[in-house]
Specification:
Layout: H1 18-21, H2 26-48, H3 53-84, H4 101-105, H5 109-113, H6 117-125
């Protein structure tokens, strides 16, 4: 049916939608994952024993559904971890900004603009000259 996540003729799951999964909590997601894995193992048995073509076609749908559930679950876990560690000084590597290796190793703007005492003295003693240009 459309309102339920079950198919009426054989009481098995239909294709799950990510936006519907996002409303569920951790336990519900894990339960659905377990159900999908059970269904997949049943379909695999049917595949070996020469089951109906409809069952063989369903294997792909169930596999993609498992992937969807895992994706939503992992995204919510990561979001929670991010929220938990938002104010801390050190953040785990997988929660840091990816960027590129060179960008991650580059000096911060504050480090790049830092001057030695001598350079600072020289800069203040000889400021950039300003010229009055005719407009």
């Amino acid at each position: 049916g459309t309102e339920s996540s079950f198919d009426s003729k054989n009481s098995k799951m239909v294709k799950v939608k990510a936006h519907e999964l996002r409303t569920k909590n951790k336990d519900e997601l894990l339960k659905q994952l377990d159900d999908l894995k059970q269904e997949l193992s049943g379909l695999r048995v049917a595949q070996v024993t020469g089951g109906a073509a409809s069952k063989l076609a369903k294997i792909k749908v169930v596999r993609k559904s498992i992937a969807r559930v895992l994706t939503v679950y992992n995204q919510t876990q990561k979001a929670e971890a991010r929220k938990l560690l938002s104010g801390s000084k050190y953040v785990p590597t997988d929660l840091r900004a990816k960027k590129t290796r060179a960008m991650r190793r580059a000096l911060t703007p504050a480090q790049a603009n830092k001057m030695t005492a001598r350079a600072a003295r020289k800069a203040s003693a000889f400021p950039l000259r300003r010229y009055a240009l005719k407009a």
